[in-house]
Amino acid sequence: MSNKLYVGNLPYSATSDQLREMFSQAGTVSDCVVITDRQSGRSKGFGFVEFEKEEDAKKAIELFNEKEMDGRKLVVNEARPKRDDEGAPAE
């Protein structure tokens, strides 16, 4: 398992700092980011949290998957590697 987690269904008001604070309950967070729209700067409703230890990432899934944050049930699972074709314009 990877140390990097995908966190989906975030409230659009969620910030990287809030995510880091919340997920640090599971262990030491080495990186945390809420993905935002380039033009508007608004959250896209998902982000990534990376832990120093794999066991902390597993604990975070147990603690936060389907947990409510501002009325939204979070989706927390292992992050998948980015595919080469993501973000490429459709032909």
UniProtKB/TrEMBL annotation:
<dbReference type="InterPro" id="IPR035979">
    <property type="entry name" value="RBD_domain_sf"/>
</dbReference>
<dbReference type="InterPro" id="IPR012677">
    <property type="entry name" value="Nucleotide-bd_a/b_plait_sf"/>
</dbReference>
<protein>
    <submittedName>
        <fullName>RNA-binding protein</fullName>
    </submittedName>
</protein>
<dbReference type="InterPro" id="IPR048289">
    <property type="entry name" value="RRM2_NsCP33-like"/>
</dbReference>
<dbReference type="InterPro" id="IPR052462">
    <property type="entry name" value="SLIRP/GR-RBP-like"/>
</dbReference>
<keyword id="KW-0694">RNA-binding</keyword>
<dbReference type="Pfam" id="PF00076">
    <property type="entry name" value="RRM_1"/>
</dbReference>
<dbReference type="GO" id="GO:0003723">
    <property type="term" value="F:RNA binding"/>
</dbReference>
<dbReference type="InterPro" id="IPR000504">
    <property type="entry name" value="RRM_dom"/>
</dbReference>
<feature type="domain" description="RRM">
    <location>
        <begin position="3"/>
        <end position="81"/>
    </location>
</feature>
